Amino acid sequence: MANIKANKKSIRQTARRAEHNKVVRTRLKSLVKSLTGDNVAASASQVASAADKAAKTGVIHRNKANRIKARLAKKLAAAKK
Fold this sequence. Notes:
Structural class: mainly alpha
Number of domains: 1
Shape: elongated
Strand content: under 5%
């Protein structure tokens, strides 16, 4: 355990941020998994928005957000056929 006051604060901050990041990642994964069948078009904008927000705040890398959105566009195109 840290003895320095600043280090104790840093540990608290890290724990708080990790918990928030976990919530954001879990929500994003749930949204991506919910894209099945006819539900693809309805929640596509939600997934893209969640991916962009997660990338903007640094929860996920921007390339991962772009990869998620590319796969989403692929599913949308396949659903239209």
